[in-house]
Amino acid sequence: MSGKTIGLLGAGRIGAMHAGILAKKAGKLVVADPASWRARRVAELHGAEVRSPEGMLASEDLDGLVLATPTDTHAGLLCEAARLGVPIFCEKPVALDVESTRRANAAAKEANIPVHVGFQRRFDAAYSAARERLAEGEIGDLRRVHMGTLDQAPAAREFLAASGGIFKDCLIHDFDALRWVTGLEVEEVVVYGTDLGLPDFADFADAAEAVVLLRLTGGVLATAHSSRFNGAGYDVRMELHGTKGTDVVGMDERLPVRSLEPGVAYPRQEPWADFIARFADCYERELDAFLDVVSGRAPVPATIDDALASLRIAIACGTSLREGRPVRVS
Fold this sequence. Notes:
By secondary structure, the protein is α/β, with parallel strands linked by helices. Helix content is 39%, strand content 22%.
């Protein structure tokens, strides 16, 4: 246990999960949510203190703050919370547009506080191994990368309305993992997508299914696939193809696929139900890393600058989908 007092602003699905982790690791947990009943429910479950959002943002006893509110509130709250002068953990994305992200970054830098952005795949053992093995030359020169994030079922309409769409909400994790694992930047994207004629997506100019082709520095090619309707289960993978070998992230015993090859029984366990189940260990390691930042023991593992780089890729994808053309990220 860190002995630190940590504030948690946002007690929805991901905030409740963070509360369960922080309650075991922080000296004291304080919870706030615009819906006070949510804050009380989470606080009672984990023995935490309840404050109003306004009270949280005026607190003088916090050592760190976790922002787990809806996506479209992150940037504004981050600018307000910077005045507390404590390290902040902010769920991705920091904002849905470049200018708001820049303002949040400027506020954090002016307050001289570290901000850790929630890209939890950086704490997954397989993604970390892929990064290390590529850097050590174990698969030779990188030629192609193939990624996919496939949700078993779409989130509620109210979430989709504020999420920023499939590129900023879902594939932004793949974009961050791509940059982090390979050390390369995305130069250009080409996107195909469809809303399948469904109002929950068409009303927000969002895609329910998307395929992205990305050209990286040095000419390496990558693809990213995303779906809101992968009924077999939650499926996240990353393949790195090199001149000496191929490494795959996500090919575990709960991969939601069925092999039709004779004599092959794979996988052998129930598929992943959702992202919280798939990345449960990563979320815990991610908050451990944040508590290390709070204690001054480690640097920030994923910065607002990282979030901005991935957001630019997501915005380029949206432009490509709307305009039906390749789009340079710059």
